[in-house]
Amino acid sequence: MIRYLGKRIFFMFLSLFLIVTATFFIMKAVPGGPFTSEKNVPDEIRAALEAKYKLNLPLHEQYLDYLKGIITWDLGPSFTEKSSTVNDMIKRGFPVSAHLGAQALLLAVFGGITLGVIAALKHNKWQDYTAMVIAVLGLSVPGFILASFYQYFFAIKWGWFPIAKWEGFEYTILPSLALSAMPMAFIARLTRSNMLEVLSQDYIKTAKAKGLNTFTITVKHAIRNALLPVITYLGPLVANILTGAFVIERIFGVPGLGREFVLSITNRDYTVIMGTTVFYSIILVAAVLLVDIAYTLVDPRIKLSDTGRE
Amino acid sequence: MERILEVKDLHVSFHTYAGEVKAVRGVNFHVNKGEAVAIVGESGCGKSVTAQTLMKLIPMPPGEIKKGDIIFNGESIVKKSNKEMEAIRGKEIGMIFQDPMTSLNPTLTVGNQIMEGLIKHQKMTRAAARARAIELLTMVGIPQPEKRVDQYPHEFSGGMRQRAMIAIALACSPKLLIADEPTTALDVTIQAQILDLMKDLQKKTGTSIILITHDLGVVAEMCDRVIVMYAGKVIETGTVDDIFYNPQHPYTKGLLRSVPRLDLKRDEPLTPIFGTPPDLLRPPVGCGFTARCESAMRVCQEYDPELKEISSTQRAACWLQHPLAQNRAGS
User: Which residue, among B257, B258, B228, has the nearest Cα to B240 in the 3D structure?
Assistant: First the structure.
């Protein structure tokens, strides 16, 4: 187990390194730079600016410099927001994004599982059809359309929730709903099909033959087995929520990290692009590892080992 | 002898897209206290449906008990609500299923799965139930039960899992044990062990057993009486001796002939019963076996024979038993 974890963590760092390298060179390969948008900069000033941010050095030196920065967790200054460093921006934006993401994640997981279980238990009845219509809508309508739709109805027409900004709990509801719609729909469908399969298994009949009631059978025997594939999906789900947040944060004017990420790309703000990418990658890679560990807790047949035997 | 179970004119149907499948079409039999009764017949003859109906384990809908009654311990099962059935399942009637690889929950420990019934029916504490589970595992012959009780099904072999299933079924000392092809999924040496175990436990606990199987060897070894089913009906019943030495129905005879024999030459072909059983979506009007029967007569197609008494213990449903057909049967 410990050997396995060590191995996994090593590969985690390896993939992070690859991500950093790829992002760095792709970013540099795109023509233009952080100061191209400023009008008529005299050559001397441009040279001075580039020297200040070390953009005049050869590419490989910039790269090594950057790697050094990452190892010491110094992500450099922002090119456009002169007053703050990338570390500051992450410190500022991440708690907001994490709050939104966690809320959406909880909604997606619990909402999705509940919908899926109800649909499976009421197979081919109206509850099933309703849940699946919701799921298909959630899967097929993109988040940004859903977001505008929510804003129009819940904020403008009925005025239940504020339309944008991030100033209290009521501000978090619409973006969380918009962000969780797709993963929730996916989890609902996944749970439903797994539940249906599990409910037809022999061990459910065994449980019934023991005289257990429907509630115990569903909760103790069925759901746990049906959730295994859902847990597998949690890794990609975290990625989904992170990337989904870019758009949703922008629409709802949420001052999160996703917005900074999108802005940084249009601004060619090299250090912010790199910093946010690295940060997101770390979260993702860690989430995938956590999911793998969680898997062993739910399914005793799976043991973490590098030999595959154990 | 006291009857623990009596099935009267039981009709069970399944409503499917294609129509109503009449899986069980008027089955009568009884089980005495402490007796082992076998229900034999080929796949699709309604034996498993009958067994599962006894515990109301068939999904309803699409399943439906159309007619008839099941009297268990003096009370009608058919009329009982789901809640009342929960108090009978596992406590009064235990059940062992065919495939031990799939009938245990892979995410719960074996001990946990044995304890569930004890906690529910006998209101035991977890500690007491655990002690009893270890006792039960010892009883079904699982070595190191203290260790095994905390293991998961995937750490058990097939035979061990079936032993664990037996422990689950017998946990609350049920009056009736239904074993639905308990040895079919096991290899031959393990089959013998499981049968020995069941016989042994029956002697010790005095439960009645209904054994569902298509393996006549198993029947001869375990059972007192045999019920032969075909196309949703009972076509012959009798003691083991009656059925094995004096079979009356052509189907029973065919079944016995089709058993592979050690005393035959190796290249001797087996004797099958040709053809397939009738489609129970549109069950035949007459005897279901007509199309495959060597001695079929015209009457067989038009009218269904009733069970007719052969001796005090044996009955068969065949027109050959009719006085008018006696000469023909002899020839």
Answer: B228
- Among B104, B121, B154, beta carbon nearest to A203: B104
* In chain A, where the domains are located: 94-298
Q: For A248-276, how does the pLDDT look when each residue is reduced to its tens digit (9 = 90+)?
A: 888 888 888 888 888 888 888 888 888 88
SS3 B142: coil
Which stretch, A272-286, A295-309, B272-286, has highest mean pLDDT? A272-286
**Average pLDDT for residues B26-41, to the nearest whole number?**
88
**CATH superfamily, domain at A94-298:** MetI-like (1.10.3720.10)
The residues pairing with B16 across neighbouring beta strands, listed in sequence order, are B19
Enumerate the domain spans of chain B: 3-92+174-330
Query: Chain A within 8 Å of B168 (Cβ-Cβ)?
Result: yes
CA–CA dist B245, B254 (Å, integer): 13
pLDDT per residue over A14-71, tens digit each?
999 999 899 888 888 887 777 766 667 777 877 887 777 777 788 888 888 888 888 8
Give me the phi and psi of B38, to 5 degrees please.
-105, 140
| CB A93, CB A246: distance < 8 Å | no
CATH of domain B3-92+174-330: 3.40.50.300
Helices (H), chain A: 2-29, 43-52, 59-71, 86-106, 112-121, 126-140, 143-150, 169-199, 202-209, 214-216, 224-226, 228-251, 257-267, 270-298
Q: Please tell me which of the candidates B103, B107, B165 has its beta carbon nearest to residue A298.
A: B107
CB contact (8 A) between residue B120 and residue A212:
yes
Q: What's the average model confidence in pLDDT over A74-97? A: 81
Among all chains, which residue has been given the structure tokens 């058919």? B78
List CB contacts (< 8 A) between B107 and chain A: 224-225, 298-300
H or E stretch at B315: strand B315-316
Count interface pairs A-B at CB distance under 8 A.
Answer: 76
Cα B279 from Cα B21, distance rounded (Å): 8
Distance CA A48, CA A51 (A): 5
What phi, psi does B45 have (nearest 5°)? Answer: -90, -5
Average pLDDT over residues A104-119: 91
With H, G, I as helix, E, B as strand and everything else as coil, classify residue B172: coil
Task: Summarize pLDDT for B271-297 with one digit per residue, the tens.
Answer: 888 878 888 788 888 787 887 887 777
Which of A147-161, A182-196, B21-35, B210-224 is the most confident on average? A182-196
With cut-offs at 50, 70 and 90, classify the pLDDT of residue A309.
Answer: very low
Minimum distance, in Å, between the CA of residue A298 and any CA atom of chain B: 7
pLDDT at A38: 64
| Shortest distance, CA A184 to any CA of chain B (angstroms) | 25
What is the distance between the alpha carbons of residues B214 and A172, in angstroms, rounded to a whole number?
Answer: 64
Output the CA–CA distances (angstroms, integers) from residue B16 to A69, A225, B163, B281, in the order listed. 68, 28, 35, 9
CA distance A277 to B316: 81
- Peptide bond before residue B62 is cis, with ω within 30 degrees of 0: yes
- What whole-number distance in Å separates Cα of residue B53 and Cα of residue B64? 9
The pLDDT confidence band at residue A310, using thresholds 50, 70 and 90, is very low
Handedness of CA B224, B230, B235, B241 (dihedral sign): negative
